Amino acid sequence: MSGGDPPPPPTVVKVEAPAAPTTDVLVAAAELPMGQVLQPADLRWQKWPDDALTPGYITRKDVPKALEETAGATTRSAFLSGEPIRPQKLVRPDSGFMAAILPAGMRAVAIVTDSRGTNSAGGFILPNDRVDVIRTFRDEENSKSTGSDVQVSQTILTDVRVLAVGQLIQEKNGTNVVTGETATLALTPGQAEKITLAQKVGSLSLALRSLADSGRPPEAEAAPQEAALTVMRFGVSRQQTR
Question: Is residue 3 part of a domain?
Answer without folding.
Answer: no
